Amino acid sequence: MRLQRLALGILAATALAWSSATVHAATITIVNIDGAGEGFNDPTPVAPVGGNPGTTIGQQRLNVFQQAAAIWGALLPSAVEIRVRAAFNPLSCNATSGTLGSAGPTGLTRDFPGAPFPGTWYHIAEANRLSGSDLLPANDDINATFNSSVGSPTCLTVGWYYGFDHNEGTQIDLLPVVIHELGHGLGFSTPTSGSSGNFNNGFPGVFDHFLLDLNTGLHWDAETAGQRVASANACTRLVWDGPSVTGASPGRLGPLPLLRVNAPGGIAGDYAVGQAAFGTALTTGGLTGNVVLADDGTGTTSDACEPIVNGAALAGNIALVDRGTCTFVIKVKACQDAGAIAVIVADNAAGCPPADLGGADPTITIPSVRVTQADGNTLKANLAAGLNVTLIKDPSLHAGSDPMGHVLMYTPSTFSAGSSVSHWDVTANPNLLMEPAINSDLTSDVDLTLNEMADIGWLDIPVPALASLGGVLARPDVVRIQWVASQAQTRTWTLYRRESGQPWSAIGIPSVVGQSLLSAEDRTVKPGTRYDYRLGSPGTNGVEEFTSDVWVAVPSGLGLALAGAVQNPASSSRMTLAFTLPTNDPARLTMTNVAGKIIRSEDLSDHAAGAHTYDLASGARLSPGVYFIRLSQAGESVLKSAVVVNN
């Protein structure tokens, strides 16, 4: 899959804070519904482990649940007790895979007093918190069931680790699994069916208001059932665009690993890769080389499952191999022994951007990556033209988000009930708590899950100040700032800006998002310039009050902006771009559709350094849809998206 590249400059990630004087930490109570002698009541004696003082399996299990409840309770405010019905029972499992646990709300409710969105389902625990009362007092709030068979010969073979210190070794760390499942019960899931696209009893969930379909430009609450089904299976095309998650993601996600084709020019660009768990990791400096197809002379000659016969051709180059019957480490080791400096493994079946390459071999010292079948076919078709690539981690992009910084949702090409949509995508790196599989590097950190809870309304974050800084995103062409204010909806607000040594100027009005978030955007910035921003709001006495100043250093670089007279959505017969070239070097504007097809490519060699405008439609009628416009110069590039609508 071809990736779009965008340079981002980040000043700060989203900060969440609230006043202890006005917000009560939630009390989360574990309700043990196991029978005598089993589950939480298992009397098998064990020694205390990893900070867990329990002396029986049952007590240690209960202690882990109570620890997870305490972690969430300290983060979420609620004056209403949250009750979790919990049990350990045998669940679906075999020696290599199985269900570790599951949790969800016992009920949904809508249109209650204090509901931020009308006609919208909320998980009952959050609805109770927002309304300030127990809306379903006869019921507990969350159901949780965990697999008591884990560790048996027929269920994953390794057992649960019950410590609190995440020193699980080869066992499965129970604590992050419980934190994960409680996250689902508290609000990290949608009641809308991803397989049929139907709302629950005709109404969307609050989760749906932040699921953005990049193919349609619509959120799930505004799409048809068919559009929702399509997006639930559309690899990397469904994202979360809530402001808290988007603001915090650059501080959580690392640089994006990718394969960058340098030549031939017809396929030049960035392609998604999965990283190997073995060998040398990719670096931000990158590794560049010519690509040669491996040949083992047997069966599928390019799968490197037998001894390499074209070692002389591979030596000093990057080997391209096909996935086949042998393991990844066998393939990579064979190519390394033949002198290859890196390996690209192409999938042998269609699918989403590839997962990582698993395996272990300490003797492998070269990097390796995995690409989709389609991208592998593209690479193979261009070998004769002189295929040259760079394997790199790009710090301007983030693993697990789209080029605009929205975090990807898990939408594999084959819908997976219970996993698709209601999880972050597996491409996130470092791994996130709410991915569909629990990874061994997780701890008690709820990472972006807390920001998701803020987006759906769990955290209104009242603070003593007029408003507190929520997050800052700075790029060469735009600055976006968010503030959290308990009176966001009830006061009027003005955005002010000043350059160093200049007076303050009112430049706009921030938009109100949800109950308590103010979002402002400044598209008149100059690359390399520092600005101060603040919000003003008249108080009850009519005197304007101001937030603390926020300074933002706008990064230098190419400035490509849909600004001034440009519309977004744009007209189908006009798409005028405003952009800035920092040097006189040759430059190019390229416009592609969502399928990666080039619609327009313009040589800008006759454009000198400075500000320019250009009509990419140039009188031709563009089909309605989403387009990506890339500006490139001197090895740098930036990208913007635009939605074209009918006149």
Structural class: alpha+beta
**Helix fraction?**
10-25%
Low-confidence segments: 1-23, 461-465, 558-572
Count of folded domains = 4
Task: Output the number of helix runs.
Answer: 9
| Strand element count | 39
Task: Average the pLDDT over all residues and give the rounded result.
Answer: 84
How are strands sequenced across the largest beta sheet? 1-15-14-21-17-18-19-20-16
Coarse shape: globular
Strand content: 25-35%
* Rounded Rg: 27 Å
Intertermini distance: 32 Å
Biggest sheet, open or closed, and with what strands and sense? 9 strands, mixed
Question: Notable features of this structure?
Answer:
647 residues, 5-stranded antiparallel β-sheet, 9 helices, disordered N terminus, Immunoglobulin-like, Glucose Oxidase, domain 1, globular
Outline of the structure:
This protein has nine helices and 39 strands. With 647 residues, the protein is of the alpha+beta class.
